[in-house]
Specification:
about 400 residues, alpha+beta, five-stranded antiparallel sheet, four-stranded mixed sheet, 6 helices, about 15% strand
């Protein structure tokens, strides 16, 4: 057989084989549902990460000379690829011993090397001053226009604007309370007098006009704490030679004293969440110029302060408060207070529903003695001695009355 005939025969066989395959596929189709052959895998390359992290919660800060600042509180850095990334804070330019404006720089870097940076301003102001021997000191102030009608809605709106600037949703109640304390302490100028007909008026004047006495500090703190959802109880001094108003606050670890008002010049005190032992230590130390500084009606107080001794002393006869303080709960809408009553009012409590209220023991014992008033030149500086307590105090809250420590900073 010649070469050409063999090639022709081979071509014919191939054609016949192709026809047989087509015939077989048509007569015997593949079962329904049979998987189609998978295509060869193709490796996909992820796009490069070029987005920097986002720094949230950083805002301008304010503190008085000698106070502390928490730069990290409520500030986070989150990356789209890496999630939460480390946050670096540069507060090397800060000087908490000198008034002025200082930059604080926040930086965050993701694994791809993308960096975000935000700079805020920390303002250090002069520490508020209270004359040792004249708590009712007056300062010359220009005439003010008449106040508008003060309503709860008006005060709440002012408080909400302030909270939006000084707090964030990522902050704990402790950090929010500290931010409120710092704001009230530095925002109001102490002038030794105020309208005490209503805490709403006291808060509005403190917020808008930025001046007043302990009642305005108390009222502003009350408005901010309540709008922030932090439980607080109103207190006022009994006995003594002048009036004083402040709060008890519970941020989740028990009740502590919260007093944003400045203290006498010779007896400075950071009175943010101090326990009962610290409050009584300070009261004894400052007694040469202020009697009964943190003495209140222990029997009528609806909560027990951390560090309260088992046996309570009986406070001296009370000076009637000058303003009616309403009972309220965070978020409650109330009207302007009525005229002040002739008799001493009961202290107020602002409690969330889950807080259990228990009365402290009220056993009568002799009143604490008050030292004879010496001359201002011989008045010693306040040096509190720790007083043992009967109750354990949470580790995260102070257990003594710390003095101002100029230059102290908190980067944690």
């Amino acid at each position: 057989m010649g070469l050409h005939r063999r090639a022709a025969l081979l071509a014919g066989l191939c054609a016949v084989g192709g026809l047989l395959l087509l015939l077989t596929a048509s007569l015997f189709p593949a079962p329904a549902g049979s998987p189609a052959p998978s295509p060869a895998p193709v490796e996909e390359t992820a796009p490069p990460d070029t987005e920097p992290p986002v720094i949230e919660g950083a805002h301008d800060l304010t503190a008085a000379v000698g106070m502390t600042l928490s730069y990290r509180s409520g500030v986070t850095a989150v990356d789209l690829v890496d999630g939460t990334v480390p946050l670096q804070i540069d507060a090397s330019a800060m000087d908490l011993t000198q008034p002025g404006e200082y930059p604080v720089v926040y930086r965050a870097r993701d694994k791809a090397g993308n960096q975000a940076e935000i700079t805020v301003t920390a303002i250090v102001v002069e520490a508020p001053a209270v004359d040792d021997l004249d708590p009712d000191q007056e300062t010359d102030t220009p005439p003010e226009p008449p106040l508008p009608e003060i309503t709860r809605e008006l005060v709440d709106a002012e408080a909400d604007q302030i909270l939006a600037r000084i707090t964030s949703s990522s902050m704990s109640d402790y950090d929010k309370a500290r931010a409120i304390y710092n704001y009230v302490h530095t925002h109001i100028k102490y002038v030794g007098t105020s309208d005490k007909s209503s805490w709403l008026v006291g808060a509005y004047v403190g917020f808008v006009r930025g001046r007043g006495d302990c009642y305005n500090y108390f009222a502003c703190a009350k408005a901010l704490l309540t709008r922030a959802g932090i439980a607080n109880v109103d207190l006022y001094r009994v006995g003594g030679n002048s009036r004083h108003y402040w709060q008890l606050v519970n941020v989740g670890s028990g009740w502590y004293h919260f007093d944003a008002c400045p203290h006498p010049n010779s007896y400075p005190l950071d009175s943010f969440l101090i326990d009962e032992a610290a409050a009584r230590t300070y009261t004894a130390a400052v007694s040469p110029i202020r009697a009964n500084y943190y003495v209140y009606d222990y029997a009528s107080c609806p909560v027990t302060v951390a560090g309260t001794p088992t046996e309570e002393p009986q406070p001296q006869e009370s000076l009637p408060p000058e303003g009616e303080v309403p009972v309220e709960t965070p978020g409650e809408n109330t009207e302007i207070l009525p005229e002040p009553p002739a008799e001493t009012q009961e202290p107020e409590i602002l409690l969330p529903p889950e807080v259990t209220v228990s009365d402290p023991p009220a056993e009568e014992v002799p009143s604490p003695e008050t030292s004879v008033e010496p001359s201002p030149e011989s008045t010693p500086a306040f040096q509190p001695e720790p007083t043992p307590t009967q109750e354990p105090v949470p580790e995260e809250l102070p257990t003594s009355a710390p003095l101002y420590e100029p230059g102290k900073e908190d980067l944690s």
